[in-house]
């Protein structure tokens, strides 16, 4: 690939078209990259302990790992 982690890129297709961000991870086996704060899914996590509150976290979609 001609891009590296840390490069600033612009999304040219999809729902996030036109957004600019920094590459955080590269998947060479399927030629995809993860851009910081773009195309992340929100996951609602239940609390594990009684006093601990639940939380909402952003995760990389599982389709990147195929």
From TrEMBL:
Domain KOW: 2-29
Keywords attached to this entry: Ribonucleoprotein, Ribosomal protein
One Pfam family cited in the UniProt record for this chain: KOW
GO biological process: translation
Record Gene3D superfamilies: 2.30.30.30
GO cellular component, one term: ribosome
Family matches, as InterPro entries: KOW, Rib_uL2_dom2, Ribosomal_uL24, Ribosomal_uL24_CS, Ribosomal_uL24_KOW, Translation_prot_SH3-like_sf
GO MF term (any one): structural constituent of ribosome
Record NCBIfam families: rplX_bact
PANTHER family linked: MITOCHONDRIAL RIBOSOMAL PROTEIN L24
Family the UniProt entry places it in: Belongs to the universal ribosomal protein uL24 family.
Name of this protein: KOW domain-containing protein
Organism per entry: Linum tenue
Taxonomic lineage from the root: Eukaryota, Viridiplantae, Streptophyta, Embryophyta, Tracheophyta
């Amino acid at each position: 690939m001609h891009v590296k982690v840390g490069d600033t890129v612009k999304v040219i297709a999809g729902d996030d078209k036109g957004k600019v961000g920094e590459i955080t991870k590269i998947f060479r086996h399927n030629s995809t990259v993860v851009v910081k704060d773009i195309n992340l899914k929100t996951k609602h996590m239940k609390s594990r302990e009684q006093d601990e509150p639940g939380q909402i976290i952003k995760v990389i979609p599982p389709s990147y790992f195929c």
